[in-house]
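Narrative of activities, Objective 1.

The group set out to show that a structural description can be obtained from nothing but a protein's sequence at a throughput compatible with the screening campaign. Below is one input-output pair from the validation batch, recorded exactly as produced.
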Amino acid sequence: MSRAELVFALGALAAFGFAWSAFLQQRASTQLAGHPGTALSRKGLAGALRLLARLVHSSAWFVGWVVNLLAFLVQAAALHLGSVAAVQPLMTTQVLFTIALSSRTARRWPTVLDWLAGGAICGGIALLMVVDGAAPIHGDADRWRVLLVTVAAAGAVAALVAASRFRPSPALAALLLACAAGVCFAMTAMFMKLTTDDLIERGIAATARDWVGYALAGSTGVGLALGQLSHAAGPLPWSMSAMNIINPVVSYIAGMVAFNTDLPTSPGALAGIAGAAALLVLGVIGLTHSPSIGIWTRVTDPNATADPSDPTPEVNRA
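Output recorded for this entry:
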């Protein structure tokens, strides 16, 4: 197996772990909150934080957290072998794995839209990986640029969280919080690569003195909290689609800015990037409108079944 193939396999495995984790944690949050949107739309941000405190004692949520931790370790291995710009687009396949999980729970076969949207995501990732020079595998970090990207990302997260506190609709609150979580996860990927390289090349003592390790802990914690609040604030398809779009986009930009990589300039590479971005965006948008994803939002009882004659998401029947 080549290095590029190993990076792809590890990235896909991490994406499955993140999807499974989100599936378990979202079900726990909807069981406690009663319905997506209850925490933020009726009780405000303080109510959502109280919900998060209750989730810590949920066995389903804890299992999801353990799965998330294992996925992070797999992602760290992929990031050590490949670049941020190469690994992070693979995280978009979380939505593809969500289709399989939701369909199994709802006991219904994925629709044609599911397969078309999933195929668009896989095609976009394949295109990004095979186009020469589109996603560079190597690159050394410029620490001043890393700091600049970190400050910019922190400002973006603060602005998105502040906007979510102005009591928007539950769906909009979920979208804003998911975007903030996506930025955090993108930064986590960058910090994870730097910290992993520190551990392997400089040792534990040097890593403990490096600020990026603490930034990794901060971005990870904030991202997980914002992601969970987003799941509790509104329909899961909205939050998942936002995180899966923002995360790879920010990661790609951050990887190109903060690392000394050769920017793609050839017409073929630029066309590949544009085509991959279009396929990924179209695929994620298609899955957010999938009847299977809408039913996943409604089914909170592991033994519950969905009505196959009613594909309309509950969150849209106001």
